[in-house]
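>> Question from a student workshop board

For tomorrow's exercise we were told to take the sequence and the ligand below, predict the bound structure, and bring the output to class. My setup keeps failing. Could a helper post the expected result so I can at least see what it should look like? The ligand is iron/sulfur cluster.
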Amino acid sequence: MAADIKQLEKKYVGKEVEFRLLRFAPDKDRAPYFQSFRIKLSQGMTVLDALMRIKETQDPTLSYRKSCRMGICGSCAMQVNGFPKLTCQTQVTELNTDKPIEVRPLANFPILRDLVPDLRNFLKAHESIKPYVIREDAEELDHPTGEFYQSPKELEKYLQFAYCIKCGACLAACPTNATDHEFLGPQALAAAYRYVADSRDQGLEQRLEAVDGPNGIFRCHYAGACSEACPKGVDPSLGIQLLKREILKYRVGAAHKKPAPLAVTPKGLKRREGIPLPPEKTVGQ
Amino acid sequence: MRESTLWLFHLLAGAVLLTVLGVHYGVMHLSNLFGIDHATVLSFSSVSGRSGRFFYLVVYLVLLPAALYHGLYGLRSLIFELSFIGLVLRRWISRILILSGSGFLIYGAYAIIAGFLG
Amino acid sequence: MKFFQLEPKTHANYLGVKGWAYGGRYGIERYLYTLQRVTGLGVLLYLPMHLIVTSQKLNQAGWEQVMGLVARGLLPFGEFLVFVGGVFHAFNGIRLLLTHFGFLMAQPARPIYPFTVAALKQRWAVYLVFVMTTVVVGYGAWEFLIVAHH
Ligand code: SF4
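>> Workshop helper replied:
Here is what the output should look like for this input. Compare the format with yours to find the bug.
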């Protein structure tokens, strides 16, 4: 792909391209409709850039959600030519098509306005799986006296799933979300695994309330589409299957998990000369 | 019941089906592989001969509930994933599935056992 | 005019049941999800009919009559389709069973571009499902459609 980007640029840059955008104003329109805009492509223009150009120069009422425009905030996921993508990460030339480029709001979410999806249920689902470290020693969490141990290997077990930016692309790809509006969705379930797999956490049982419910993890039949759509390489379908395994272990009583202990400061060692002192402790004074 | 319990049974029933349905398919439809003529397999004498054997009694008594549970739970998940079906309707659908499942279980078990004894 | 609206008006934008049949340019796994459902439903629909038919084995006259009935017209072909669906459902079921417990899957790794997708690394299993289905169905077809009619 990357190799022929130069050729693609030669082919498309400077040309006029048609964008078909889905429009919907809830106070005026009864149903969404497509509106076309034509703009000239400049080099490196992303789909989001194109939307901004259209808003600036042609129709200031066009609504879309965006913030960081560099793949970090997760606001700008939309269906670009039928596939959920972060528009800020998708260059128009890379779509490599002469046909009009169709941009719709993310599928499987209600439309608030134009290209803006309604993420309230999505975020509620994320909240319901308790996305934070849960431990029995709550006192330590509230008034920490130090850090918990965690080896790089333990980190790798969940790190991938911690990269999620809550863009919602995975839900737009999921066939269960297509019909089941209450399904927790790949994002929340992968997030649940991110905490369950965390060596510092003890919250599997508490999370099961949401995860093991009628709209929970067992509505996933492994289509794998969420992982294909994810723009951050989170691979939610992998996380979900691994979470199923954890639940099985728990149900057969094999889920022994001692949470990571507090890291103790070694005592009785002498500091080598010339090594600067560590910064002041920020917790546990 | 917890969803994980129902689902684990679904998988367990699936695994059971893999073996017993394998036997069933093997005997009924791939019998030529074992040198038995297809028409013979389906003749009354051979069918009732098999029914009278303890091995087939066990196979079919395991196959029947496993198939009913696996199939009806699958149907239930499919239906419950359709959001336009409301909660009240879901409750009724669950009841109907349980009732029809039990009905077919009794009916089938009767035929299997009667075939074994007769 | 309303200045403040707690519940904004929205427009549903779910793909719906059509989304099972087509969702976009995803891998074949997303469509196997649907195929697994369709074949499962097919076999399930067949089950009560099959129970009723086979329970006629309790007496010879009933059995011979019902065997004559099901050998008519397109019914044997229908049965063959159920067989095909069942075989596919079984092999794909093995793949899913293993996957649900995290086997056949890559391990979590740091997401370094270009990202890998564990689901796609499992393609060989999908191909194996098709190969196994074809082998068994191929043999079954011979017995179902050819041998059975001689
Ligand atoms: S898992 Fe991936 S696709 Fe889903 S919300 Fe997170 S970043 Fe977006």
